[in-house]
Amino acid sequence: MKLLEAFLNALYPKHVTCCACGRDGILNEHEVCEACEKEILYAAQMPQLSGLDGIACGLLYAAQGAELVKRLKYRNEKYLGEILAGYIKIPDAWQIHCIVPVPLHPSRRRKRGYNQSEILAKHLGKSLGVPVEKHLLVRVKNTLPQANITDAKKRAQNVKGAFLAIPASVGKSVLLLDDVITTGSTVEECAKALRRAGAKNVYACSVCRSPT
After folding, report:
1. Helix/strand/coil percent split, the chain, to 5
2. Fewest C-beta in 10 Å: which of 57, 129, 134, 205?
3. Cα separation of 92 and 112, whole Å?
4. How many C-beta atoms lie closer than 10 Å to residue 16's C-beta?
5. How far is CA 5 from CA 2, 65, 105, in A?
6. 78 and 120 Cβ atoms separated by less than 8 Å
7. What distance lies between CA 171 and its chain's CA centroid?
8. φ and ψ at residue 204, rounded to 5 degrees
9. pLDDT digits (tens, 9 = 90+) for 58-103
10. pLDDT at 12 exceeding the cut of 70
């Protein structure tokens, strides 16, 4: 019995703070307590998007999942990047050469101080054993925040021509990473830029997808 308890304590240590609610308790592999885990909604398979060879989203952008992403994105809680990246599951069949985080425009990056997608990409790349090559894609247009636009057509127009990929993309199988995918217009536009630069395959993933 003592051996079993020691094993369980090592696997799910007691008196450790839940990253979602801040309370001490027995946590799962995502550092979330049982009560908060019940409020995390996992995403079903997202429909295929134009220009992508596959797409994978971990959670629905709702309840605790949405709150954790907001804390990473807007409240400088960068430690959540490792936890949230753990919810992204990439199919074994995807042959990926590198991970490319969706870039911010330089002015927005300076204002925020960091790119949350780069933080997520670093941790996902470490778990997959795949390098992060953020230099392959740059944002050349300072667009309005997609979160402020609800209409799908307007979202697509907002990011049209916003990205440029460099020739080093030639022949690579790239995994795009964004924090949240809503209509998919951002990753579709990124995929267009990468394919124009000669990327062989382009996949996309995110922590969350919109529930609608």
Report:
1. 40, 20, 40
2. 129
3. 34
4. 13
5. 5, 30, 50
6. no
7. 23
8. -140, 150
9. 999 999 999 999 999 999 999 999 999 999 999 999 999 999 999 9
10. no
- Geometric angle at alpha carbon 92, from 89 and 98, rounded to 5°: 80
**Other CB atoms closer than 10 Å to residue 11's CB: what's the count?**
11
DSSP per-residue letters across 52-76:
-SEEEEEEESSHHHHHHHHHHHHS-
Q: Whose structure tokens read 């020691």?
A: 6
What pLDDT digit, counting tens, does each position of 94-136 carry? 999 999 999 999 999 999 999 999 999 999 999 999 999 999 9
Strand 137-139, strand 163-165: pairing: antiparallel
Alpha carbon distance 143, 155 (integer Å):
10
Query: What is the DSSP code (8-state) at residue 168?
Result: G
Which tokens hold the place of 114? 């960091």
